[in-house]
Amino acid sequence: MLEYFERNTSRLQIGGMDFEEMIRQYKTPLYVYDSEIIRTKFQRLREAMPPHIQIFYAVKSNPNLAIIRMLAELGCGFDVASIGELTAIKKLAIDGSRVVFTGPGKSDDEISMAIQLGIYSFNCESENEIIRINSAAKKANKKIKIGLRVNTDYAIQETVKMIGGTQAKKFGMDENQVFAVIDRMKELEHVEIIGIHVFNAAQVLDYRELAANTKNILRLAKDIMEQKGLSLEYIDIGGGLGIPYAENEKELDVTALGNEFRNLHKKMPSLNKVHWIVEPGRYLSGECGVLLTNVVDVKTSRGVRFVITDAGINNFLRPALIQQNHPVLVANKFDRNPVNIYRVEGPLCTSLDCLGTDVNLPYIEAGDTIAFFNAGAYGFSESMPYFLSHPIPAEVMVKSGKAVLIRRRIEPHEYIEHCII
Ligand SMILES: Cc1ncc(COP(=O)(O)O)c(C=O)c1O
């Protein structure tokens, strides 16, 4: 855990910069991303994966334009899930051929924007969605490539429920429905089925589980090709590459995973011409990010020591939503040993506003700065910024020893002006 941060210093350094300079300039709460960590993670994965696999970053994990642009420059493709994410792709002038669009409930506006951008493929979540894409393609006088998202009968057991395994769910079509869907969709003239997509477990740290799941996806692809006479172009094996959040968790061994993928590819010659897409979110963007928040108050209630910070679930919902602690350290007492167990909570008027339970920390006083690690993925983007009308934190990227503002802080008076009296 925390393999990318120097632990033997008294103060937290991010990308070689002292945290305090950044919070002085940009205030707290503050999200800081170390660009070198993103680069390292992408390159490590790229080197580990065989050439038939393309990496498409799941934008939802952190949609900041600076991160998307950096990954685009490194040669990454993108998995988008909304009109906002399509807008980011458009703004950065990323070629549509490097984009797939996955996610339930695609609106008509989203479908037509994706068609305009010329994305590579839509990963379709239902039969109705395919029919709607076909109609939009007809209007645009185009033939559109699609993949079928499948809710497979086999899935990895998630340690914390995020995507949800094999149960009833809104994602994709059940494995036992998909063959009949293909028959019915053959009549549609403006869509062409060229792929399948399966994503059934997030935060997987064991490469053997990911490999076993992929083997099952390949088996399904082969059955579809043989039984339905389809020639697939791609197999999208989803995201789910985990990162260590707890002390006892280890990095996912992507080199071993790459070797498993190479073997699977060799063993299935009938799929030789089909390329694979992997869509990691947190693996690429998670570990680069630190949320810095100042301690406003410290108190004890019924024997529990509380640390009250200026960030709450309005800025960082994930620990409460998923009920999973992130690594927590004190930025200004970085090398001090823990002495107490604390509960870290934000300033919101709800007891759901908990950022960390049973956290071992050194002695905490008001004015200390708490650092939440692995906050780059599903941190800023998975929060509820308007709840209780606090400022919306800035995002900063450290690059070549400089902290660069990549999204400015928004003060409440700015969004209060959006209300109409
Ligand atoms: C369709 C899809 N692909 C990829 C991802 C990325 O998942 P992870 O960040 O666990 O890799 C998600 C996350 O929810 C997703 O919904």
Short note summarizing the structure:
With 421 residues, the chain is an alpha/beta fold. It has helices spanning 19-26, 35-48, 65-73, 83-91, 108-117, 127-139, 175-185, 207-228, 254-267, 282-285, 318-323, 412-416, and strands at 13-14, 17-18, 30-34, 53-58, 77-80, 99-102, 121-124, 144-151, 173-174, 191-197, 234-236, 275-278, 289-301, 304-309, 328-330, 340-345, 354-361, 369-372, 394-399, 402-407. Strands 3, 13, 14, 15, 16, 17, 18, 19 and 20 form a 9-stranded mixed sheet that branches. Strands 4-5-6-7-8-10-11-12 form an 8-stranded parallel barrel, surrounded by 5 helices.
CATH-defined architecture of the largest domain: Alpha-Beta Barrel
Query: Assembly type of the shown chains?
Result: single chain
Q: Please tell me what the overall shape is.
A: globular
Q: With helices defined by DSSP (H or I, 4 residues minimum), what is the helix count?
A: 12
Tell me the strand percentage band: 15-25%
Poorly predicted spans: none
The overall strand count is 20
The gyration radius over C-alpha positions equals 23 Å
CATH evolutionary superfamily of the largest domain:
Alanine racemase
Class from secondary-structure proportions: alpha/beta
What ligand species are in this complex?
pyridoxal-5'-phosphate
Q: Report the CATH topology name of the largest domain.
A: TIM Barrel
Mean pLDDT: 96
How far the N terminus sits from the C terminus, by CA atoms, comes to 50 Å
Most strands sheet? 9 strands, mixed
Helical amount: 25-40%
Supply the CATH class of the largest domain. Alpha Beta
Number of domains: 2
